[in-house]
Amino acid sequence: MNLLDGKLVSAKIKEDIKKDAADFTAQAGRKPHLVAILVGNDGGSETYVASKMRNCELVGFESTNIRYDVDVTEEQLIAKIQEINADASIDGLIVQLPLPKHIDPDKITEAIDYRKDVDGFHPINLGRMQRNLPCFIPATPYGIMLMLDYYKIETAGKHAVVVGRSNIVGSPMSILLARNANPGNCTVTLTHSRTKDLKTEVLRADIIVAAIGKKNFVTADMVKDDAVVIDVGINREDSIETKSGFKLYGDVDFDQVAPKASWITPVPGGVGLMTIVGLLKNTLEAAKGTIYPRS
Ligand code: GUN
Fold it and tell me: Mean pLDDT, 10 residues at a time, over the chain (295 residues)?
């Protein structure tokens, strides 16, 4: 078993981003700038946004966190998004999900200017991704592709099974793995809650992407020998063992599955760190105007 080490790969790529950001800042007279909107007090979301902001500072970006109480209206959020869309000093905008029930995430996503949509969730970016055109790629799938690329994992002709069809991970991941690109060119099965006999499907996989949000969901009896196992799960449980007061578990039963896998990502220390890298790369591209020219 070999480890797909998110700590190592993210640190290396962040060094490159830091250099590029310094060049951009010297030329443009300002830093790349990411704004993150956070609504309410969800513990996980607070941690993720804080980490995104901290990593922006680390690579030399400016970052702004705008917070709203849980009872903010859809209209208020959209008005803020429109203000940011029109602000030329802001390159990227993300609205942390999930949002409270009274706010329609699709409306919010579509209100963001697709040229600042560094989450890659806007239908224009998703459509362009499917067509293999330049676009912002959702951060987690992007980070996974960067990891596969770094370790030169052979993907062409392999059977990839994605577990979970979320808009954020499973669905875009299935598109990326199937694209005529490298990494890519997989035969992809996208499985979900209505899949019949999930175990048999996952057992066929050369590459497993587990993105279902259930602790230790993928067990050893579901994994073929020498499979590549990508664990997207970040399941938080309260714990008295850690300083933070919680412990993270993946969607894969690591201890059982690792001996069978050729490559596997740990949790923590795997995909989560690569997600940040995907977001930082998108933000830098937005600032430089390499994907969508600055108007
Ligand atoms: N919630 C979980 N993952 C993500 C992400 O990548 N972006 C946003 N905006 N919200 C999330």
Answer: 98 98 98 98 95 98 98 98 98 98 98 98 98 98 98 98 98 98 98 97 98 97 98 95 92 98 98 98 98 90
Catalytic residue at 96?
A: yes
If you measure from the C-alpha of residue 97 to the centroid of ligand 1, how many angstroms do you get, rounded to a whole number? 5
Phi, psi of 147 (to 5 degrees): -65, -45
Question: What's the CA gap between 222 and 161, in Å, rounded?
Answer: 11
Confidence (pLDDT) at 57: 98
d(CA 40, CA 157): 44
Domains identified in the chain, total number: 2
Q: Which helix (H) or strand (E) holds 126?
A: helix 123-130
Residues in CB range of 22: below 8 A, 6 or more apart: 60
Structural domain boundaries, residue 215: 139-273
Question: With a 6 A CB cut-off, is 49 part of the ligand 1 pocket?
Answer: no
Ligand 1 mean position to 27 CA, how many Å? 31
Could you tell me if 144 and 189 lie in one domain? yes
Q: Does residue 168's CB lie within 6 angstroms of at least one atom of ligand 1?
A: yes
Q: Is the CB of 171 under 6 A from ligand 1?
A: no
Q: What is the pLDDT of residue 295?
A: 73
The CATH number of residue 37's host domain is 3.40.50.10860
Q: What is the CATH number of the domain that holds 172?
A: 3.40.50.720
Q: Is 76 a catalytic residue?
A: no
Do 226 and 161 fall into the same domain? yes
Query: 99 CA distance to ligand 1 centroid (A)?
Result: 10
